[in-house]
Description:
The structure is a homodimer. The first copy, chain A, is an alpha+beta fold. Chain A folds into 2 domains: 12-83, Orthogonal Bundle (Arc Repressor Mutant, subunit A); 88-253, GAF domain (Beta-Lactamase, 2-Layer Sandwich). Chain A has helices at residues 14-29, 40-47, 51-63, 78-84, 88-108, 150-157, 160-167, 182-195, 239-253; strands at residues 67-70, 73-76, 111-118, 121-128, 143-145, 198-201, 209-217, 220-229. In chain A, the strands form 2 sheets. Chain A has a 6-stranded antiparallel beta sheet. In chain A, strand 1 and strand 2 form a beta hairpin. In chain A, helix 5 (88-108) packs antiparallel against helix 9 (239-253) and helix 6 packs across helix 8. At the A-B interface, helix 1, helix 3, strand 1, helix 4 and helix 5 of A face helix 1, helix 3, strand 1, helix 4 and helix 5 of B.
Amino acid sequence: MAPQQPRSGERASRPGIEVINRAVDLLAAFTQGPGSVLTLAELARRTGLPKPTLHRLLAALEVQGLVDRTASGYQLGIRLFELGEHVPRKHKLREAALPFMQDLFEASHDTVHLAVLDGTDVVYLERIHGHRALNVASRVGGRLPAHCTGVGKALLAYNPEAALRVMAMPLPPRTAYTITSHQVLAEELQRIRQTGISYDREENSLGITCVAAPIVVDGHAVGAVSVTSAPGSDVERYASAVRTAALGIRRSLGRTPILHPTPPRARASKKEPT
Amino acid sequence: MAPQQPRSGERASRPGIEVINRAVDLLAAFTQGPGSVLTLAELARRTGLPKPTLHRLLAALEVQGLVDRTASGYQLGIRLFELGEHVPRKHKLREAALPFMQDLFEASHDTVHLAVLDGTDVVYLERIHGHRALNVASRVGGRLPAHCTGVGKALLAYNPEAALRVMAMPLPPRTAYTITSHQVLAEELQRIRQTGISYDREENSLGITCVAAPIVVDGHAVGAVSVTSAPGSDVERYASAVRTAALGIRRSLGRTPILHPTPPRARASKKEPT
Protein backbone atom coordinates (compact mmCIF):
# COMPACT_ATOMS: atom_id res chain seq x y z
CA MET A 1 0.00 0.00 0.00
CA ALA A 2 1.37 3.39 -0.98
CA PRO A 3 2.02 5.99 1.71
CA GLN A 4 -0.98 8.22 2.28
CA GLN A 5 -1.05 11.18 -0.07
CA PRO A 6 -1.92 14.59 1.34
CA ARG A 7 -5.42 15.60 0.31
CA SER A 8 -5.61 18.84 -1.66
CA GLY A 9 -7.21 20.75 1.23
CA GLU A 10 -4.22 19.87 3.40
CA ARG A 11 -1.68 21.53 1.15
CA ALA A 12 -1.68 24.71 3.22
CA SER A 13 -0.79 22.72 6.33
CA ARG A 14 1.98 20.65 4.77
CA PRO A 15 4.79 22.61 6.47
CA GLY A 16 3.28 21.78 9.88
CA ILE A 17 2.80 18.14 8.98
CA GLU A 18 6.37 17.96 7.70
CA VAL A 19 7.59 19.10 11.10
CA ILE A 20 5.82 16.09 12.65
CA ASN A 21 7.38 13.73 10.10
CA ARG A 22 10.81 15.20 10.76
CA ALA A 23 10.38 15.06 14.53
CA VAL A 24 9.35 11.38 14.42
CA ASP A 25 12.20 10.57 12.02
CA LEU A 26 14.53 12.27 14.47
CA LEU A 27 13.21 10.20 17.39
CA ALA A 28 13.49 7.05 15.27
CA ALA A 29 17.10 7.93 14.39
CA PHE A 30 18.04 7.21 18.02
CA THR A 31 16.88 3.61 17.50
CA GLN A 32 18.68 3.04 14.20
CA GLY A 33 22.22 1.99 14.94
CA PRO A 34 24.56 1.63 17.88
CA GLY A 35 24.74 4.00 20.83
CA SER A 36 21.99 5.75 22.70
CA VAL A 37 23.66 9.13 23.26
CA LEU A 38 24.16 10.83 19.91
CA THR A 39 25.90 14.03 18.90
CA LEU A 40 24.33 16.60 16.61
CA ALA A 41 26.74 15.46 13.86
CA GLU A 42 25.66 11.82 14.18
CA LEU A 43 21.97 12.81 14.18
CA ALA A 44 22.58 14.89 11.05
CA ARG A 45 24.19 11.87 9.41
CA ARG A 46 21.33 9.53 10.37
CA THR A 47 18.46 11.85 9.44
CA GLY A 48 19.96 13.77 6.53
CA LEU A 49 18.61 16.98 8.10
CA PRO A 50 20.67 20.18 8.26
CA LYS A 51 22.07 21.01 11.70
CA PRO A 52 20.07 24.24 12.25
CA THR A 53 16.81 22.32 11.57
CA LEU A 54 17.91 19.55 13.92
CA HIS A 55 18.79 22.07 16.57
CA ARG A 56 15.32 23.60 16.49
CA LEU A 57 13.60 20.20 16.52
CA LEU A 58 15.75 18.97 19.42
CA ALA A 59 15.03 22.14 21.43
CA ALA A 60 11.28 21.63 21.00
CA LEU A 61 11.47 17.92 21.84
CA GLU A 62 13.63 18.67 24.89
CA VAL A 63 11.08 21.13 26.29
CA GLN A 64 8.50 18.33 25.99
CA GLY A 65 10.81 15.82 27.73
CA LEU A 66 10.96 13.50 24.70
CA VAL A 67 14.70 14.17 24.32
CA ASP A 68 17.31 14.87 27.02
CA ARG A 69 20.54 16.79 26.55
CA THR A 70 23.46 15.15 28.39
CA ALA A 71 27.12 16.08 28.76
CA SER A 72 28.03 14.04 25.67
CA GLY A 73 25.04 14.48 23.38
CA TYR A 74 21.31 13.83 23.10
CA GLN A 75 19.29 10.81 24.21
CA LEU A 76 15.62 9.82 24.22
CA GLY A 77 13.84 11.14 27.34
CA ILE A 78 11.83 9.35 30.00
CA ARG A 79 8.60 11.12 28.95
CA LEU A 80 8.66 9.17 25.67
CA PHE A 81 8.71 5.93 27.68
CA GLU A 82 5.80 7.17 29.82
CA LEU A 83 3.68 7.95 26.74
CA GLY A 84 4.56 4.60 25.17
CA GLU A 85 3.36 2.73 28.23
CA HIS A 86 -0.14 4.10 27.64
CA VAL A 87 -0.47 2.38 24.25
CA PRO A 88 -3.54 0.22 24.93
CA ARG A 89 -2.54 -2.71 22.71
CA LYS A 90 0.56 -3.03 24.91
CA HIS A 91 -0.80 -2.13 28.32
CA LYS A 92 -3.96 -4.27 28.41
CA LEU A 93 -2.40 -7.41 26.99
CA ARG A 94 0.73 -7.16 29.12
CA GLU A 95 -1.26 -6.71 32.33
CA ALA A 96 -3.43 -9.74 31.56
CA ALA A 97 -0.43 -11.84 30.48
CA LEU A 98 2.16 -11.05 33.16
CA PRO A 99 0.97 -13.44 35.93
CA PHE A 100 0.87 -16.33 33.43
CA MET A 101 4.29 -15.35 32.09
CA GLN A 102 5.60 -15.43 35.67
CA ASP A 103 4.18 -18.97 36.02
CA LEU A 104 6.03 -20.01 32.85
CA PHE A 105 9.22 -18.41 34.13
CA GLU A 106 9.00 -20.17 37.50
CA ALA A 107 8.45 -23.51 35.74
CA SER A 108 11.21 -23.11 33.15
CA HIS A 109 13.64 -20.39 34.31
CA ASP A 110 13.96 -19.71 30.60
CA THR A 111 13.14 -16.53 28.67
CA VAL A 112 9.39 -15.91 28.29
CA HIS A 113 8.08 -13.63 25.52
CA LEU A 114 4.81 -11.87 24.74
CA ALA A 115 4.37 -10.48 21.23
CA VAL A 116 1.78 -8.95 18.91
CA LEU A 117 1.58 -8.65 15.15
CA ASP A 118 2.19 -5.31 13.42
CA GLY A 119 1.87 -5.66 9.66
CA THR A 120 4.04 -8.68 8.83
CA ASP A 121 6.35 -8.24 11.83
CA VAL A 122 6.08 -9.26 15.44
CA VAL A 123 6.65 -6.62 18.11
CA TYR A 124 7.77 -7.91 21.52
CA LEU A 125 5.63 -6.43 24.30
CA GLU A 126 7.37 -8.18 27.18
CA ARG A 127 10.40 -10.32 27.81
CA ILE A 128 10.89 -11.96 31.21
CA HIS A 129 14.16 -13.61 32.10
CA GLY A 130 16.41 -14.47 35.01
CA HIS A 131 20.17 -14.44 35.42
CA ARG A 132 20.46 -17.23 32.86
CA ALA A 133 19.29 -15.06 29.93
CA LEU A 134 19.97 -16.44 26.49
CA ASN A 135 21.50 -14.33 23.80
CA VAL A 136 18.12 -14.00 22.08
CA ALA A 137 17.69 -11.50 19.26
CA SER A 138 14.52 -10.09 20.80
CA ARG A 139 14.19 -7.06 23.05
CA VAL A 140 11.13 -5.41 24.54
CA GLY A 141 9.82 -3.04 21.88
CA GLY A 142 11.92 -4.80 19.23
CA ARG A 143 10.51 -6.29 16.03
CA LEU A 144 11.32 -9.33 13.90
CA PRO A 145 9.77 -10.76 10.71
CA ALA A 146 6.80 -12.93 11.74
CA HIS A 147 7.59 -15.87 9.43
CA CYS A 148 10.78 -16.91 11.23
CA THR A 149 9.70 -16.76 14.88
CA GLY A 150 7.55 -19.05 17.03
CA VAL A 151 5.28 -16.24 18.22
CA GLY A 152 5.10 -14.85 14.68
CA LYS A 153 3.91 -18.11 13.12
CA ALA A 154 1.39 -18.59 15.96
CA LEU A 155 0.02 -15.10 15.21
CA LEU A 156 -0.04 -15.63 11.43
CA ALA A 157 -1.94 -18.92 11.84
CA TYR A 158 -4.85 -16.97 13.35
CA ASN A 159 -4.56 -13.79 11.24
CA PRO A 160 -5.29 -14.90 7.66
CA GLU A 161 -5.06 -11.37 6.20
CA ALA A 162 -1.56 -10.86 7.58
CA ALA A 163 -0.61 -14.39 6.53
CA LEU A 164 -1.70 -13.60 2.97
CA ARG A 165 0.46 -10.48 2.99
CA VAL A 166 3.43 -12.62 4.08
CA MET A 167 2.62 -15.08 1.27
CA ALA A 168 2.94 -12.23 -1.23
CA MET A 169 6.45 -11.34 -0.03
CA PRO A 170 9.80 -13.10 -0.34
CA LEU A 171 10.75 -14.99 2.86
CA PRO A 172 14.36 -13.99 3.52
CA PRO A 173 16.35 -16.64 5.44
CA ARG A 174 17.85 -15.66 8.78
CA THR A 175 19.46 -19.04 9.39
CA ALA A 176 19.76 -22.26 7.39
CA TYR A 177 16.52 -23.39 9.10
CA THR A 178 14.27 -20.42 8.25
CA ILE A 179 11.20 -21.44 6.23
CA THR A 180 11.70 -19.79 2.84
CA SER A 181 9.04 -21.67 0.83
CA HIS A 182 5.54 -20.22 0.83
CA GLN A 183 4.02 -23.66 0.56
CA VAL A 184 5.98 -25.02 3.52
CA LEU A 185 4.97 -21.97 5.56
CA ALA A 186 1.29 -22.43 4.62
CA GLU A 187 1.48 -26.09 5.70
CA GLU A 188 3.16 -25.02 8.94
CA LEU A 189 0.38 -22.51 9.67
CA GLN A 190 -2.24 -25.23 9.08
CA ARG A 191 -0.41 -27.54 11.50
CA ILE A 192 -0.35 -24.74 14.10
CA ARG A 193 -4.11 -24.30 13.72
CA GLN A 194 -4.55 -28.04 14.32
CA THR A 195 -2.34 -28.25 17.41
CA GLY A 196 -2.51 -24.75 18.88
CA ILE A 197 1.29 -24.89 19.23
CA SER A 198 4.05 -23.27 17.18
CA TYR A 199 7.76 -24.14 17.23
CA ASP A 200 10.76 -22.13 16.17
CA ARG A 201 13.58 -24.58 15.58
CA GLU A 202 16.59 -22.29 15.12
CA GLU A 203 14.67 -20.47 12.36
CA ASN A 204 15.63 -17.02 13.62
CA SER A 205 18.86 -17.62 15.57
CA LEU A 206 21.16 -20.63 15.53
CA GLY A 207 21.03 -22.51 18.82
CA ILE A 208 17.74 -20.94 19.92
CA THR A 209 14.52 -22.95 19.94
CA CYS A 210 11.15 -21.86 21.18
CA VAL A 211 7.61 -23.05 21.73
CA ALA A 212 4.74 -20.57 21.34
CA ALA A 213 0.95 -20.48 21.56
CA PRO A 214 -1.52 -17.93 20.20
CA ILE A 215 -3.91 -15.97 22.44
CA VAL A 216 -7.09 -16.38 20.41
CA VAL A 217 -10.13 -14.12 20.86
CA ASP A 218 -13.09 -14.73 18.49
CA GLY A 219 -10.91 -16.81 16.16
CA HIS A 220 -8.29 -14.05 15.89
CA ALA A 221 -4.89 -14.12 17.66
CA VAL A 222 -4.44 -10.86 19.62
CA GLY A 223 -1.01 -11.93 20.87
CA ALA A 224 1.24 -14.93 21.40
CA VAL A 225 3.30 -16.17 24.32
CA SER A 226 6.43 -18.33 24.17
CA VAL A 227 9.20 -20.02 26.13
CA THR A 228 12.65 -19.85 24.55
CA SER A 229 15.09 -22.57 25.45
CA ALA A 230 18.79 -23.10 25.66
CA PRO A 231 20.61 -24.92 22.84
CA GLY A 232 19.99 -28.67 22.88
CA SER A 233 17.23 -28.45 25.49
CA ASP A 234 13.92 -30.18 24.90
CA VAL A 235 11.56 -27.28 24.36
CA GLU A 236 8.61 -29.61 23.66
CA ARG A 237 8.20 -30.30 27.35
CA TYR A 238 6.80 -26.77 27.81
CA ALA A 239 4.24 -27.09 25.00
CA SER A 240 1.24 -27.80 27.19
CA ALA A 241 2.27 -25.21 29.82
CA VAL A 242 2.57 -22.54 27.09
CA ARG A 243 -0.80 -23.49 25.65
CA THR A 244 -2.41 -23.41 29.10
CA ALA A 245 -0.87 -19.98 29.74
CA ALA A 246 -2.28 -18.66 26.44
CA LEU A 247 -5.75 -19.94 27.38
CA GLY A 248 -5.42 -18.35 30.84
CA ILE A 249 -4.41 -15.00 29.33
CA ARG A 250 -7.36 -15.17 26.96
CA ARG A 251 -9.70 -15.79 29.91
CA SER A 252 -8.10 -13.01 31.92
CA LEU A 253 -8.52 -10.56 29.03
CA GLY A 254 -12.22 -11.24 29.43
CA ARG A 255 -14.31 -8.33 28.34
CA THR A 256 -11.37 -5.96 27.80
CA PRO A 257 -11.58 -5.38 24.07
CA ILE A 258 -8.30 -4.94 22.21
CA LEU A 259 -9.10 -2.77 19.24
CA HIS A 260 -7.07 -3.10 16.12
CA PRO A 261 -6.30 -0.33 13.67
CA THR A 262 -8.92 -0.31 10.91
CA PRO A 263 -6.80 0.08 7.76
CA PRO A 264 -3.41 -1.55 7.19
CA ARG A 265 -1.30 1.36 8.27
CA ALA A 266 0.38 3.51 5.64
CA ARG A 267 3.60 4.64 7.19
CA ALA A 268 6.07 7.26 6.03
CA SER A 269 9.33 5.76 4.80
CA LYS A 270 11.95 5.47 7.54
CA LYS A 271 14.78 5.89 5.05
CA GLU A 272 13.86 9.15 3.48
CA PRO A 273 12.59 11.93 5.73
CA THR A 274 9.94 13.84 3.83
CA MET B 1 12.31 27.16 36.55
CA ALA B 2 10.44 29.04 33.85
CA PRO B 3 9.69 27.25 30.56
CA GLN B 4 12.40 27.79 27.99
CA GLN B 5 11.87 30.99 26.01
CA PRO B 6 12.38 30.88 22.25
CA ARG B 7 15.60 32.63 21.31
CA SER B 8 15.15 35.56 18.90
CA GLY B 9 16.66 33.65 15.97
CA GLU B 10 14.02 30.98 16.41
CA ARG B 11 11.10 33.29 15.89
CA ALA B 12 10.76 32.35 12.22
CA SER B 13 10.41 28.68 13.16
CA ARG B 14 7.84 29.16 15.92
CA PRO B 15 4.92 27.82 13.82
CA GLY B 16 6.84 24.56 13.28
CA ILE B 17 7.75 24.29 16.95
CA GLU B 18 4.15 24.93 17.92
CA VAL B 19 3.12 21.95 15.81
CA ILE B 20 5.44 19.76 17.91
CA ASN B 21 3.99 21.14 21.15
CA ARG B 22 0.46 20.52 19.91
CA ALA B 23 1.30 17.01 18.71
CA VAL B 24 2.83 16.06 22.07
CA ASP B 25 -0.10 17.62 23.95
CA LEU B 26 -2.40 15.55 21.75
CA LEU B 27 -0.50 12.33 22.55
CA ALA B 28 -0.54 13.24 26.26
CA ALA B 29 -4.31 13.83 26.11
CA PHE B 30 -4.76 10.07 25.63
CA THR B 31 -3.15 9.54 29.05
CA GLN B 32 -5.17 12.19 30.91
CA GLY B 33 -8.41 10.62 32.00
CA PRO B 34 -10.38 7.44 31.57
CA GLY B 35 -10.61 5.43 28.36
CA SER B 36 -7.95 4.65 25.81
CA VAL B 37 -10.03 4.99 22.63
CA LEU B 38 -11.12 8.60 22.23
CA THR B 39 -13.39 10.36 19.77
CA LEU B 40 -12.46 13.57 17.99
CA ALA B 41 -14.93 15.42 20.24
CA GLU B 42 -13.31 14.07 23.43
CA LEU B 43 -9.83 14.93 22.13
CA ALA B 44 -11.04 18.45 21.30
CA ARG B 45 -12.36 18.76 24.86
CA ARG B 46 -9.11 17.51 26.42
CA THR B 47 -6.71 19.55 24.28
CA GLY B 48 -8.75 22.68 23.63
CA LEU B 49 -7.72 22.45 19.97
CA PRO B 50 -10.19 23.06 17.12
CA LYS B 51 -11.35 19.91 15.31
CA PRO B 52 -9.78 20.74 11.91
CA THR B 53 -6.38 21.21 13.60
CA LEU B 54 -6.83 17.95 15.51
CA HIS B 55 -7.79 16.17 12.33
CA ARG B 56 -4.60 17.24 10.57
CA LEU B 57 -2.41 16.36 13.55
CA LEU B 58 -4.07 12.94 13.93
CA ALA B 59 -3.62 12.20 10.21
CA ALA B 60 0.11 12.97 10.46
CA LEU B 61 0.54 10.95 13.65
CA GLU B 62 -1.40 8.04 12.13
CA VAL B 63 0.91 7.91 9.09
CA GLN B 64 3.82 7.65 11.54
CA GLY B 65 2.09 4.87 13.52
CA LEU B 66 1.97 6.92 16.75
CA VAL B 67 -1.84 6.96 16.63
CA ASP B 68 -4.25 4.29 15.31
CA ARG B 69 -7.75 4.89 14.04
CA THR B 70 -10.19 2.21 15.23
CA ALA B 71 -13.90 1.65 14.60
CA SER B 72 -14.82 3.72 17.67
CA GLY B 73 -12.16 6.44 17.73
CA TYR B 74 -8.43 7.03 18.05
CA GLN B 75 -5.89 5.30 20.28
CA LEU B 76 -2.12 5.50 20.82
CA GLY B 77 -0.25 3.28 18.33
CA ILE B 78 2.25 0.50 18.89
CA ARG B 79 5.07 2.52 17.27
CA LEU B 80 4.97 4.94 20.23
CA PHE B 81 5.59 1.99 22.56
CA GLU B 82 8.50 0.84 20.36
CA LEU B 83 10.15 4.27 20.49
CA GLY B 84 9.61 4.51 24.25
CA GLU B 85 11.38 1.20 24.81
CA HIS B 86 14.56 2.72 23.37
CA VAL B 87 14.79 5.36 26.12
CA PRO B 88 18.19 4.48 27.59
CA ARG B 89 17.41 5.42 31.20
CA LYS B 90 14.63 2.81 31.03
CA HIS B 91 16.20 0.13 28.88
CA LYS B 92 19.62 -0.18 30.54
CA LEU B 93 18.40 -0.14 34.11
CA ARG B 94 15.50 -2.51 33.46
CA GLU B 95 17.73 -5.05 31.72
CA ALA B 96 20.22 -5.00 34.60
CA ALA B 97 17.47 -5.15 37.23
CA LEU B 98 15.09 -7.76 35.81
CA PRO B 99 16.91 -10.94 36.95
CA PHE B 100 17.16 -9.56 40.51
CA MET B 101 13.51 -8.51 40.42
CA GLN B 102 12.61 -12.06 39.37
CA ASP B 103 14.56 -13.35 42.40
CA LEU B 104 12.57 -11.03 44.68
CA PHE B 105 9.33 -12.17 43.05
CA GLU B 106 10.15 -15.83 43.49
CA ALA B 107 10.99 -15.24 47.17
CA SER B 108 7.94 -13.10 47.97
CA HIS B 109 5.29 -13.64 45.27
CA ASP B 110 4.47 -9.99 45.96
CA THR B 111 4.62 -7.03 43.59
CA VAL B 112 8.18 -5.91 42.77
CA HIS B 113 8.84 -2.38 41.48
CA LEU B 114 11.71 -0.58 39.77
CA ALA B 115 11.58 3.22 39.66
CA VAL B 116 13.66 6.28 38.79
CA LEU B 117 13.42 9.91 39.80
CA ASP B 118 12.14 12.53 37.34
CA GLY B 119 12.12 15.94 38.96
CA THR B 120 10.33 15.41 42.29
CA ASP B 121 8.30 12.42 41.05
CA VAL B 122 9.11 8.75 40.72
CA VAL B 123 8.44 7.06 37.38
CA TYR B 124 7.89 3.30 37.51
CA LEU B 125 10.06 1.51 34.96
CA GLU B 126 8.91 -2.00 35.75
CA ARG B 127 6.31 -3.76 37.85
CA ILE B 128 6.44 -7.54 38.23
CA HIS B 129 3.56 -9.40 39.80
CA GLY B 130 1.78 -12.73 39.82
CA HIS B 131 -1.88 -13.67 40.04
CA ARG B 132 -2.02 -12.23 43.56
CA ALA B 133 -1.50 -8.63 42.43
CA LEU B 134 -2.35 -5.97 44.97
CA ASN B 135 -4.44 -3.00 44.09
CA VAL B 136 -1.34 -0.79 44.05
CA ALA B 137 -1.58 2.74 42.65
CA SER B 138 1.51 2.24 40.49
CA ARG B 139 1.62 1.23 36.84
CA VAL B 140 4.54 0.82 34.47
CA GLY B 141 5.20 4.28 33.06
CA GLY B 142 3.13 5.86 35.82
CA ARG B 143 4.38 8.54 38.18
CA LEU B 144 3.79 9.39 41.84
CA PRO B 145 5.19 12.10 44.14
CA ALA B 146 8.54 10.88 45.52
CA HIS B 147 7.95 11.93 49.15
CA CYS B 148 5.14 9.44 49.79
CA THR B 149 6.57 6.25 48.27
CA GLY B 150 9.24 3.81 49.45
CA VAL B 151 11.19 3.98 46.18
CA GLY B 152 10.79 7.77 46.11
CA LYS B 153 12.26 8.31 49.57
CA ALA B 154 15.13 5.89 48.76
CA LEU B 155 15.88 7.95 45.65
CA LEU B 156 15.62 11.30 47.44
CA ALA B 157 18.01 10.11 50.18
CA TYR B 158 20.75 9.78 47.53
CA ASN B 159 19.77 12.76 45.33
CA PRO B 160 20.27 15.83 47.54
CA GLU B 161 19.38 18.32 44.78
CA ALA B 162 16.02 16.68 44.18
CA ALA B 163 15.48 16.36 47.95
CA LEU B 164 16.05 20.10 48.35
CA ARG B 165 13.49 20.78 45.63
CA VAL B 166 11.00 18.61 47.54
CA MET B 167 11.83 20.52 50.75
CA ALA B 168 10.85 23.76 48.99
CA MET B 169 7.39 22.41 48.09
CA PRO B 170 4.32 21.61 50.16
CA LEU B 171 4.00 17.87 50.91
CA PRO B 172 0.38 17.04 50.11
CA PRO B 173 -0.98 14.07 52.10
CA ARG B 174 -2.25 11.07 50.18
CA THR B 175 -3.28 9.15 53.30
CA ALA B 176 -3.31 9.88 57.03
CA TYR B 177 0.22 8.40 57.15
CA THR B 178 1.90 10.53 54.46
CA ILE B 179 4.86 12.53 55.79
CA THR B 180 3.76 16.16 55.50
CA SER B 181 6.43 17.79 57.68
CA HIS B 182 9.67 18.81 55.97
CA GLN B 183 11.64 18.13 59.13
CA VAL B 184 10.22 14.64 59.57
CA LEU B 185 10.98 13.91 55.90
CA ALA B 186 14.57 15.17 56.30
CA GLU B 187 15.04 12.92 59.36
CA GLU B 188 13.57 9.99 57.40
CA LEU B 189 16.02 10.57 54.52
CA GLN B 190 18.92 10.61 57.01
CA ARG B 191 17.72 7.31 58.50
CA ILE B 192 17.51 5.82 54.98
CA ARG B 193 21.11 6.87 54.33
CA GLN B 194 22.16 5.15 57.55
CA THR B 195 20.35 1.87 56.89
CA GLY B 196 20.17 1.68 53.09
CA ILE B 197 16.48 0.75 53.49
CA SER B 198 13.32 2.78 52.97
CA TYR B 199 9.81 1.90 54.14
CA ASP B 200 6.45 3.11 52.94
CA ARG B 201 3.96 2.43 55.72
CA GLU B 202 0.62 3.16 54.04
CA GLU B 203 1.95 6.62 53.11
CA ASN B 204 0.65 6.45 49.56
CA SER B 205 -2.24 3.94 49.75
CA LEU B 206 -4.06 2.65 52.81
CA GLY B 207 -3.33 -1.03 53.40
CA ILE B 208 -0.20 -1.03 51.21
CA THR B 209 3.27 -1.24 52.76
CA CYS B 210 6.55 -1.53 50.97
CA VAL B 211 10.27 -1.91 51.54
CA ALA B 212 12.69 -0.30 49.08
CA ALA B 213 16.42 0.09 48.52
CA PRO B 214 18.34 2.58 46.38
CA ILE B 215 20.64 1.50 43.52
CA VAL B 216 23.62 3.73 44.30
CA VAL B 217 26.34 4.54 41.73
CA ASP B 218 29.06 6.96 42.83
CA GLY B 219 27.00 8.13 45.79
CA HIS B 220 23.99 8.91 43.59
CA ALA B 221 20.84 6.72 43.37
CA VAL B 222 20.13 5.91 39.70
CA GLY B 223 17.04 3.87 40.61
CA ALA B 224 15.32 2.04 43.44
CA VAL B 225 13.78 -1.40 43.79
CA SER B 226 11.00 -2.44 46.17
CA VAL B 227 8.73 -5.23 47.34
CA THR B 228 5.15 -4.22 48.07
CA SER B 229 3.23 -6.33 50.54
CA ALA B 230 -0.31 -7.26 51.31
CA PRO B 231 -2.14 -5.51 54.16
CA GLY B 232 -0.96 -6.68 57.58
CA SER B 233 1.99 -8.64 56.21
CA ASP B 234 5.44 -8.18 57.68
CA VAL B 235 7.28 -6.35 54.94
CA GLU B 236 10.44 -6.05 57.07
CA ARG B 237 11.33 -9.65 56.39
CA TYR B 238 12.25 -8.69 52.81
CA ALA B 239 14.52 -5.80 53.83
CA SER B 240 17.80 -7.62 53.43
CA ALA B 241 16.68 -9.35 50.20
CA VAL B 242 15.72 -5.98 48.68
CA ARG B 243 19.02 -4.45 49.73
CA THR B 244 20.95 -7.40 48.29
CA ALA B 245 19.00 -7.08 45.03
CA ALA B 246 19.85 -3.37 44.80
CA LEU B 247 23.56 -4.15 45.32
CA GLY B 248 23.36 -6.88 42.67
CA ILE B 249 21.72 -4.53 40.16
CA ARG B 250 24.41 -1.93 40.86
CA ARG B 251 27.12 -4.54 40.18
CA SER B 252 25.33 -5.73 37.06
CA LEU B 253 25.10 -2.16 35.71
CA GLY B 254 28.88 -2.19 35.89
CA ARG B 255 30.40 0.11 33.37
CA THR B 256 27.12 0.97 31.60
CA PRO B 257 26.85 4.66 32.34
CA ILE B 258 23.34 6.02 32.87
CA LEU B 259 23.51 9.62 31.77
CA HIS B 260 21.24 12.13 33.37
CA PRO B 261 19.83 15.20 31.70
CA THR B 262 22.13 18.18 32.36
CA PRO B 263 19.67 20.92 33.30
CA PRO B 264 16.50 20.39 35.36
CA ARG B 265 14.12 20.02 32.46
CA ALA B 266 11.94 22.95 31.52
CA ARG B 267 8.75 21.42 30.25
CA ALA B 268 5.84 23.02 28.47
CA SER B 269 2.74 23.24 30.63
CA LYS B 270 0.44 20.25 30.23
CA LYS B 271 -2.63 22.36 30.91
CA GLU B 272 -2.23 25.00 28.30
CA PRO B 273 -1.06 23.97 24.84
CA THR B 274 1.18 26.71 23.49
